[in-house]
Amino acid sequence: MGEFELIERYFKRAPQRAVLGVGDDCALLQPSPGHQLAISSDMLLEGRHFLSSVDPLRLGHKALAVNLSDLAACAAKPLAFTLALALPWIDPPWLEAFSRGLFALADEHGCELIGGDTTRGPLNICITVFGEVPTLAGRAQALPRSGARAGDDLYVSGTLGDARLALEVFRGTVSLPAPVFELARRRMEQPTPRVALGLALRGVASAAIDISDGLLGDLGHILRASRVGATLDVDIATDLVASYALCTGRTAEFDVDIEVGRWRQFALAGGDDYELLFTAAPTQREAVAAASHAAHTPVTRIGQINAEAGLRLLDARGQPVRNDYTGFDHFA
Amino acid sequence: MGEFELIERYFKRAPQRAVLGVGDDCALLQPSPGHQLAISSDMLLEGRHFLSSVDPLRLGHKALAVNLSDLAACAAKPLAFTLALALPWIDPPWLEAFSRGLFALADEHGCELIGGDTTRGPLNICITVFGEVPTLAGRAQALPRSGARAGDDLYVSGTLGDARLALEVFRGTVSLPAPVFELARRRMEQPTPRVALGLALRGVASAAIDISDGLLGDLGHILRASRVGATLDVDIATDLVASYALCTGRTAEFDVDIEVGRWRQFALAGGDDYELLFTAAPTQREAVAAASHAAHTPVTRIGQINAEAGLRLLDARGQPVRNDYTGFDHFA
Lengths: 332, 332
Prior knowledge:
Chain A is built from eleven helices and twelve strands. Chain A is α+β, with helices and mostly antiparallel strands. Chain A has two domains: 3-139, CATH 3.30.1330.10; 153-314, Phosphoribosyl-aminoimidazole Synthetase, Chain A, domain 2, CATH 3.90.650. In chain A, the strands form two sheets. In chain A, strands 8-10-7-11-9-12 form a six-stranded mixed beta sheet, with helices on both faces. In chain A, strands 2, 3, 4, 5 and 6 form a five-stranded mixed beta sheet that branches. Strand 1 (27-29) of chain A pairs antiparallel with strand 2 of chain B, so a sheet runs across the interface.
């Protein structure tokens, strides 16, 4: 099978919203009147962003999910994406499963594949995604990183740290009962982009980012862009590791020997969470709850934005916790 | 140096046209009123699309050039691009030269870097480029592959085959005098995207494609999309190999022993030409000449579109030439 047959067989579908789809030199895309286009690009490499053993269906899902997560953080509605794919060889069952996982998530969000590139090389998936945000008096109603204000509440969606926990199982540094591992592994391999929540937070949140490199690292981006500081409740964040409750005897289901410091590490600097971290004024608490409800996505208040620069970590008793947690750096 | 410092040092510039530039979850882009966005994506891998010995400044140029070439083929005006970059390690002199070559070409075309991704891995450059095309009564004034009509003239811009000739020198199958090799190598490593010509051909050409996989292969895409055939003058096309005149004694400068069949191969199926192949009605001959003049880009009429399907190759005496030339397939 050659390059063109590969595209034809696994990736070509009739164009929907795009004026010209897969197969011309360019795709043509028209944002709705009064909207701007939001654009983000992510590259996933075998061995760095996913393990070679991953189910290709989950990988197809994840490759698009991490890009949709960036749109979610900007409150952009998904429209379309391009896919550039380097493959070491043409493996029809792999391609069949990969494209099925990819299109299942794409269809769920009405997000159309409009172009791309394929070549032979070490497995590498590069997706660029397009969404739209309405403009008001010429200004895009996106959620920037720079909008956090002193006094704002700090929230996070969903759960934290489970993807990192699964990675540590693969690395052999922890062992888990099979059902807990399965839960954690699914969070690592098939994350849910919080698109509905991002859209529901338009006009409610003051700043947002998606957590890909770890809670504290990505919070740092908001604090720097907004020129503010924050206080964070470490124990509330740690309670958001879904496996934590299952493993610490709180539900008495399993008894796993992982010290509390590592659980905190997973929650605060795990990476690969793809949850939304956002800020909103205290006057917006009911609106945040309504957005969470409308998007069927739990959100938890984990701290507060301060005028004073820097990040202060406190435990449940209000005692300071030393910040030994570094974010995930793809060159570290 | 980490991921964020790398972006900060080599790739971050103040946003111009983009509303949000490098450094937020998404970039925001607004096409001009009455325009659609043209989008294309290309991935370049070491060892497949470029040699590891290539000057990084030329590589930065080429990575963007091959994408701008796709915009040119759609008659789209360049606006912006994203860059996803996998690097085996952080090499400051390499990054300095790569980004310089990249931005030199970007600035020449007013094309702004608005986002992307960096990660550690086998050297891989994935660029997605954005241009705009005006719409008329809701229809984009792009040059599709599907617009060729029986009776149309067939044209190609610039020169053909020199990039392939240089590749064959690297492969050791031909040897060339140094000045001829330098010319051919520059065509391979630093191609010129025909953006100005593409724009000048709006409303003049009926169909267009950029030649990346070889003249015949890419002509095949136009013929299939337009449901037509073509007749092509093989010797006129072969005369477009810039090194040919220098090497065949026509200018008596060099005497190189390469048989005519191979020169034809370079011209017809060389790959990496990044010239525009386009069709236009015979009534447009003066307009094509004017576009060529305005864009400072030579164009040559190399054949004709026919209603009869299939591709007929003729030599200078009008005798049929067997089509033994296959295009470049990245999985072959």
